[in-house]
Write a structure and sequence with these properties.
By secondary structure, the chain is mainly α. 42% of the residues lie in helices and 7% in strands. The protein has a two-stranded parallel sheet. Keywords: 4Fe-4S, Iron, Iron-sulfur, Metal-binding, Oxidoreductase, Translocase.
Length: 151
């Protein structure tokens, strides 16, 4: 099989993948513009501006229904009386026979963390990751947040 050349334009989710299928850890992820989107979003835009950009970009969820991510984010309540809110990433893939998200969670854990940071900022909440027990030891997703905190 010939090598596939992945670029941000042709493979926006997977261009950072390593050929050896090992996880892309923090230093390598950052060297490939990782967390640049989060930096720009969290330091230069309001949550509403980010939501509008996501709507304009036509970003869709990966759950199969093709629902607009920007629309979903815009429907979140803006109740100021809530002291703490949590954004939950339920990483339990329940579609029979599909592992479409597993590849990203195992090999690009920081992509997931970066997306959660931006999403949590828009929802004015704290990010929270839920992984099924069988996946925790197989995935880089458990240790990626720990690597971020150390930097």
């Amino acid at each position: 099989m010939k090598n596939i050349i992945r670029t941000p334009e042709t493979h926006p989710l997977t261009w950072r993948l390593r050929d050896d299928k090992q996880p892309v850890w923090l230093d390598e992820y950052r060297s490939k513009n990782g967390y640049e989107g989060a930096r720009k979003a969290l330091t230069g835009l309001s949550p509403d501006e980010i939501v509008n950009q996501v709507k304009d970009a036509g970003l869709k969820g990966r759950g199969g229904a093709g629902f607009s991510t920007g629309l979903k984010w815009s429907l979140m309540p803006k109740d100021e009386s809530m002291n703490i809110r949590y954004l939950l990433c339920n990483a339990d893939e329940m579609e029979p026979g599909t592992y479409k998200d597993r590849l990203l969670m195992e090999q690009l854990p920081h992509l997931l963390v970066e997306g959660m940071l931006i999403s949590a900022f828009c929802a004015e909440s704290l990010p929270w990751l839920h992984l099924p027990a069988w996946r925790i030891y197989r995935s880089g997703s458990k240790s990626a947040p720990r690597h971020c905190r150390s930097h």
